[in-house]
# Entry
Amino acid sequence: DAKTTQPNSMESNEEEPVHLPCNHSTISGTDYIHWYRQLPSQGPEYVIHGLTSNVNNRMASLAIAEDRKSSTLILHRATLRDAAVYYCILRGILNTPLVFGKGTRLSVIA
Amino acid sequence: DTGVSQDPRHKITKRGQNVTFRCDPISEHNRLYWYRQTLGQGPEFLTYFQNEAQLEKSRLLSDRFSAERPKGSFSTLEIQRTEQGDSAMYLCASSWGEGTLLYEQYFGPGTRLTVT
# Structure
């Protein structure tokens, strides 16, 4: 499976936007970029995914570089409830299980 | 709402004992996955089912581990002769799956196993 690289941790002030980066230089043409997050003491939850174009949903936005070698998850206004570990995952069309790395631990300061 | 549920939430057992965990997926989901998560790491895939068929097993799933999904509904994960290294959070997830179309996975709260 293609690998992703994320910072171990990031910190944000409440109500500020947060940009969580992910590098995936070995991405293949059929790999989708998925983001999941895991709140404390909970199972992971789906956030967003995309292939080539930027994507928006009620939780976040996903900005994908033109060469697809990197992407950024954008939380437009961080709240304390957004404090979690965020995982960037590449998923090919034949890859059903998710392959998690260590993710980025996001701390939100009030 | 009936999301993915897991039982028990916590299990403490002595080394050498057998344990069994249960997962109830979202009812219309045909795919069910088991993952294991140790402290500070992301979840690691163990196995998955499409309906009642076990389609893939990770090399992490040693002979002491067995999973079933009778009738394509709930699933059980059994660990025989537990070892201290089996201490982890065991997560279950479910999704709809159709050919190569990928759908998001919904995770349960996990079962935390402690082997003493």
